[in-house]
């Protein structure tokens, strides 16, 4: 009942160690179960204070006895029902917590899927842009190759035409040269014949 501290002793009264509580006028006495232990005595300034203390002690004793007394069937049923309700509420809280965590996981997975989808769409758009760019470059290269082939054909045709013109000019030149040679031969023959005729005529007159 008494603390071992000698300078500031603290006095406590476990209810199970108290044997009797009483007062006489302003004197209040608490008797412990241990008969060797001294009674705890104090004096109140007024009688009504001791009455109130005794009433509090009696009420506390009733509560103490109720706690020690076995519960009735109704109380046991009520406590069992309360425990069941408490257990049910705990299960509901656990279910709610589990459902909450599951929803959070689903939301995180959904957000992750959306991010991956957006990244995939961006990569796809980039791939499409690069593909279109490559296709355009290839189309430009093909168009350029066709233009170069067309220019090559035109150049070849022009070269063939120029070669044909050159050959035709050469043939025309050869023909003109041949005509000139033939004409000179013809003139020489005519001159020779005229000279022969003149010579024969002169010879006849002389005779």
From TrEMBL:
What keywords appear on the UniProt entry? Cell membrane, Membrane
What molecular function does GO assign, one term?
A: actin binding
Region annotated Disordered sits at 177-207
* Biased composition, class Polar residues, residue ranges: 180-189
Q: Name one Pfam family in it.
A: ERM_helical
What Gene3D superfamilies does this protein map onto?
1.20.5.450, Pleckstrin-homology domain (PH domain)/Phosphotyrosine-binding domain (PTB) (2.30.29.30)
Q: Which residues does the UniProt record annotate as the domain FERM?
A: 1-68
Q: Where in the cell is it found?
A: Cell membrane
Quick one: a GO cellular component term?
plasma membrane
Quote the PANTHER family the UniProt record gives.
Answer: MERLIN/MOESIN/EZRIN/RADIXIN
Per its record, how is this protein called by name? Ezrin
Organism of origin: Galemys pyrenaicus (Iberian desman)
